[in-house]
Amino acid sequence: MDILSSATAVTRARDSLHSTGIAVVPDVLSYTQCQHTVKLINDLLVKDASNSSLFRKEVFHAAILNDLGDQKAQKDESTQLRSCKTCVAGDQIPPSAAPSILYYSEESPLMEFLKQVFDTEHVYRTEDKLGCLNIHVYEPNGDELNWHYDNGGIAVTILLQEPDEGGVFEYVRQARPANDASEDAALVKRVLSGEQKPEQANVRAGSLVLIRGNEHLHRVTPVHGVLPRVLAVLSYESTPGVTLNEYTRLKFFGRCS
Ligand SMILES: O=C(O)CCC(=O)C(=O)O
Ligand SMILES: [Fe+2]
């Protein structure tokens, strides 16, 4: 975590985010911290096998989830993208896990780092007990997160376990055309047809990844092999006191409370 207090790391990440839309900061968590968290999550998965309180869902969705995209209501391949993973919600993650400490601790340098890198005066944790800190488990039988834009502009993740095969974070460097849904849809089509090649981020276990997720189309390729891909998603807002509504809680966590 010390690396986040380094001025060089701030400058490097800020420059990278500015020029490419993404910044990868390696070794924010150690291998031991990552493995400790993976073990805690594994224990939850084993315990959960019988009562399924962890939320696992396969969905088919459009790449563009905003109002402009949905209005088109076309039924082509760009609206039938498959995503499937297990989500461990904020209230299920042990406080002793390294991502919890990094996210919640008053001594954590992360918040200051984010303000400087995203060049903003205010960054707040999402104050939702489910949607604050999540851990996503991509099982190695084809779990994936298909092409999408995020709703929020500050996406922060930490990879905890690399899979053997697939699970690559891909993104399109070209920033989203401002308020132009038809250009947006054209970009999605070019990416889906292979005409426009995405970039692949080089992310190792322990790396912090920052992206402007509402501007850059991105996805996680299907995971195969033996090891699941395990990733912490740390949620932030530009205004204080943000909670999720019931619709969003049901959609992402399968429950309201
Ligand atoms: O799993 C990842 O690396 C990306 C996650 C992501 O894009 C999201 O949760 O919106
Ligand atoms: Fe995303």
UniProtKB/TrEMBL annotation:
Keywords: Iron, Metal-binding, Oxidoreductase. InterPro entries: BesD/HalB-like, Oxoglu/Fe-dep_dioxygenase_dom. Gene3D superfamilies: q2cbj1_9rhob like domain. It comes from the Eukaryota. The keyword Metal-binding applies. The keyword Signal does not apply. GO terms for molecular function: metal ion binding; oxidoreductase activity. Residues 128-238 form the Fe2OG dioxygenase domain. It holds the Pfam family HalD. This is Fe2OG dioxygenase domain-containing protein. Belongs to the iron/ascorbate-dependent oxidoreductase family.
